[in-house]
Each structure stands twice: as structure tokens, then as C-alpha cells.
Write a structure and sequence with these properties.
The chain has 473 residues and is of the alpha+beta class. The chain contains 15 helices and 13 strands.
Length: 473
């Protein structure tokens, strides 16, 4: 309806579609054809449910304060919203500057413009190949633009499948999805926003388009990308109904290729530990960045032992300026990038848990019941003025830590700062981070929506069309 009317709303269609898919699997009650009025009613309910789900998740996590005023609920931010705004600016800055456009591909453009209104045929081989080629270039552009680095193609996703295999399968699905979406926009063909085909046909298509991927891994990729109860539509975006697979374009974005393949591989708890360990090995990116700091000595996985010789743990990354006698201890966590609010809350839980873990070791080191085995030639541990911090790849932490004198930052944030002039200046910006300013870079507005007989008035963030990046003071 929005396409036909030539309008755009702020409704998160990917979230609404995800709600519809989860309902379809949780309450499989519908049979027979669905009328347009029924579809509109269900979609309206899904949109309302999305408002409530996001509100409930935020309230349960402590992100909102709720107060009953008159006939409605006033819902305000509990924490500093500038942290969330900083992440939004940094994510925007990480987007690739130039991407191939369908309008530049004559083969695709001609096929769309010559389709008849009654046609239900899929694209011919040359059109689909052009779409897959464009999707491949787009995916690689997004992956290479990530400041903290992409998952290498050789990264194991389990059962012999690599990240490179999954990328090639996703390029076919994303190419087809982009053709659907562009057809819908150009021809106002609403039914074209979804593509569907029998599962054997999809497998045959992948066999033609992904000759370097084994049929076993093609089938494994499709299985992992197919939604099941307990999975997320953001990372398992294919919907199976009987023997038909439905592709929903808004759920399939090239920006999210790495988290899609990592989370789909981690569905099985038996595979998550291995994925987590391999991601943890990427913490060396912190070491490499810190070594650009003038005058800094950097080491990783510094062991700590107790007085009885038992291990007390280790310090993931340690940097010391021996001249100024300042140091930085980082506990590194490398969770999969969050694509939804519940996933973002899980990353915050990781940060909170890491802070408690680091605090336990810090107290032992301060009490003298444990000793950090710093590299030879470094100043004694007790002679250093230490800053203690948890590091993540992309996400800053909205929730204030319960541990005193402990801080959270992200590799994406510190990389945006540029090369530190010295370790003392870097430590200072970790303790007092430079963040966007309300009234300059963003404003807090109010969005209202009904819940039965009440109105909910919710704080929402609006980013100003200005440039922001963190700076050293």
C-alpha cells in the first residue's frame, strides 16, 4: 500500500515480517486463501505487537522508566541515549560509500520493465546471473567496509562448510530478493515483494549458480537459513510452507551477511562454543591497533598466578607506557553482531559479565594474592596507574556497569578516534568518552501509540543530518 501511494513510513517492515513469520510457526491456524482485508488486519496487529515487544524488552532490561500520567504511560530513557546515538553514527560511517545499482545493469532493468502484469515467471538465467553478480559485489563491499574486519572466507561454520560457501549461497538468495524488491517498486506489483518456489527448484537453482559449493553444503546452508521455532528471522530469513520456500526481501540484507552466517551456524548449542572460541581469537585486532600508540608496550593473554602457583586467570590485552607509568587492561569479548534489540541486550550482558570477571582478577592483583606475569623488562605491575576496560567489536554499552571504575568501549569506537597521541590520552577518553551532543547531533522526541484504552508516549531518538565522530580531548 505504501508503494502504491508513493509514501514511506518509519514502520520497521523487517520487524513486522519477522512477527508474521513467528506467528505463522507458533499458531498454525490459517487455511485456504487469505483475503486482502484479513492480511491488512493481521499486518496491523503485527505492527502493534512490534511496538509492544520492543517496549517490553526495553522495560525489562531497565532501559526505560515508566510512569502513569493521566490517561497514558510516559516512557523515558533510563540511560544516556548519547551512547546509542554514537553507535548509530559509527555504524552509518562504516557503510560502504559506493555500491552497484540495479539501474546500472541493463540486463536486469530491461527484464523488469518488460514484464507483463500477469506474469508469474521467475527471471531467466542471464538476468539472475546479473543479479547474483551484483549481490556478490555488494556483499563484499559491506564486508570489507567493516572497521573491525570481516570474517575470513576460510572461517569454519561447522560440518565442513566455510564462510565463503555461505556467502556464495547468500549471494544467490539476495540477488533474487533484490529483483523482487525492485520489481515491486518500479511496477507497483505488491505480490512481487515476496518470491516463492518449491524447495527442489531452489536447490536446482543453487546447483547452477554455486558450482564451487558442494550440494551437501548448499543443502546445509538452506537448512540453516530456513526459519524454525526458536530461531530468528533476521538470521534465518527463508520461510518454508509445506514444500515451498518463501523469500522475504526486507529480511535479507547484505549488511548483515557475517552475523547471518555466524548466528545460523550457532543455532545448535553444540556448535556455539566452537564458533565463540574462533571469534575470540580475533581479539588480536585490539593488540594490533594498540601497538600504533607511541611509547606503548603491548602484550596479550598475560597470565596471572596465585601465591600457591595455581592460575588466577589472564589479562586479555595489556598496554603500558613505561615513561608515564600508565597502563590499560582490556577484557575482550567478541560476540556476534546484534541485529535486534534482544540481541543487543545479550551483548550488554556479555559486557557486564566480562566486567565482573575482570574485577575479580583485579581485586586479587590489588590484594597481592595473585601476580600478573608481565613480559620481561616491563615496569612492576603495582607501579602502574591502571585503567580497566571491557572491549567489544562494534557495540558500546548503554547499561551502566555495576562494577566501580570499570569501563566499556568498542574497537569500532577507538578506531574512529584515530591513532592515539599517547596511552594516557587514550585512557582518558575511555574513562570519559566523547559522545554526541543532544540538541546538536540528536534530539529526543516523543512517539505515541495506543494500547487498548491507554496511550503510550515513548522516547525516540532522531539523528541530525550532521557528521560526528569521537575525538581525543
Amino acid at each position: 500500500m505504501e508503494i502504491t501511494a508513493g509514501i514511506e513510513s518509519d514502520l520497521p517492515w523487517e520487524s513486522v515480517l519477522a512477527q508474521l513469520v513467528s506467528w505463522h510457526h507458533e499458531f498454525s491456524l490459517g487455511t485456504g486463501p487469505c483475503t486482502e482485508s484479513d492480511a491488512a488486519e493481521v499486518t496491523t496487529l503485527a505492527a502493534a505487537a512490534q511496538h509492544l515487544d520492543l517496549l517490553e524488552t526495553g522495560v525489562r532490561a531497565g532501559a526505560y522508566q515508566v510512569r502513569l500520567t493521566g490517561g497514558g504511560f510516559r516512557v523515558r530513557h533510563s540511560w544516556n541515549p548519547a551512547v546509542e546515538v554514537a553507535d548509530a553514527f559509527l555504524a552509518e560511517a562504516a557503510l560502504p560509500a559506493q555500491l552497484p545499482k540495479l539501474s546500472e545493469t541493463e540486463t536486469e532493468r530491461r527484464w523488469i520493465s518488460t514484464r507483463s502484469a500477469s506474469s508469474r515467471k521467475g527471471p531467466p538465467a542471464d538476468v539472475l546471473q546479473a543479479a547474483v553478480d551484483r549481490a556478490t559485489v555488494t556483499i563484499e563491499a559491506y564486508r570489507k567496509a567493516v572497521p573491525e574486519g570481516q570474517v575470513p572466507d576460510a572461517f569454519s561454520l561447522g560440518e565442513g562448510m566455510t564462510a565463503g560457501d555461505m556467502v556464495r549461497v547468500l549471494a544467490v538468495i539476495m540477488g533474487l530478493a533484490s529483483l523482487c524488491e525492485e520489481t515491486a517498486h518500479r511496477l507497483s506489483r505488491l505480490e512481487s515483494t515476496l518470491a516463492h518456489m518449491p524447495l527442489p527448484q531452489l536447490r536446482a537453482l543453487l546447483a547452477d549458480m554455486c558450482p564451487t559449493v558442494s550440494e551437501t553444503h548448499q543443502a546445509l546452508a538452506v537448512e540453516r537459513l530456513t526459519y524454525r521455532t526458536g530461531r530468528s528471522c533476521r538470521t534465518s530469513p527463508l520461510v518454508q510452507h509445506d514444500d515451498v520456500v518463501i523469500i522475504c526481501p526486507p529480511l535479507i540484507t547484505p549488511r548483515a551477511v557475517d552475523p547471518i552466517m555466524l548466528r545460523s551456524a550457532a543455532h545448535d548449542s553444540r556448535g556455539f562454543g566452537r564458533i565463540g572460541r574462533e571469534l575470540g581469537n580475533r581479539a588480536t585486532a585490539w593488540t594490533e591497533w594498540l601497538r600504533t600508540t607511541p611509547g606503548a608496550l603491548v602484550a596479550e593473554r598475560v597470565p596471572a598466578t596465585r601465591t600457591d602457583g595455581r592460575s588466577a586467570g589472564d589479562l586479555d590485552v595489556v598496554a603500558v607506557d613505561p615513561a608515564r607509568r600508565v597502563g590499560l587492561c582490556l577484557e575482550i569479548k567478541w560476540p556476534i553482531e546484534a541485529l535486534s534489540l534482544p540481541e543487543a541486550m545479550k551483548v550488554e550482558n556479555w559486557a557486564t559479565s566480562a566486567a565482573c570477571q575482570l574485577d575479580r582478577l583485579r581485586e586479587e592483583l590489588r590484594a597481592g594474592t595473585a601476580k600478573a606475569l608481565l613480559p620481561s623488562g616491563w615496569p612492576p605491575f603495582e607501579s602502574i596507574d591502571w585503567t580497566w576496560c571491557v572491549g567489544t567489536p562494534q557495540q558500546l554499552c548503554l547499561r551502566p556497569l555495576s562494577v566501580r571504575d570499570m569501563h566499556v568501549t568498542s574497537l569500532r569506537y577507538v578506531q574512529a578516534l584515530g591513532t592515539p597521541p599517547d596511552l594516557e590520552t587514550l585512557s582518558d577518553v575511555l574513562v570519559r568518552p566523547d559522545l554526541p551532543t543532544e540538541g546538536v547531533h540528536f534530539k529526543v522526541s516523543k512517539r505515541s501509540f495506543p494500547v487498548e484504552s491507554r496511550q503510550v508516549h515513548l522516547d525516540v531518538l532522531e539523528l541530525a543530518p550532521v557528521h560526528w565522530r569521537p575525538r581525543f580531548r
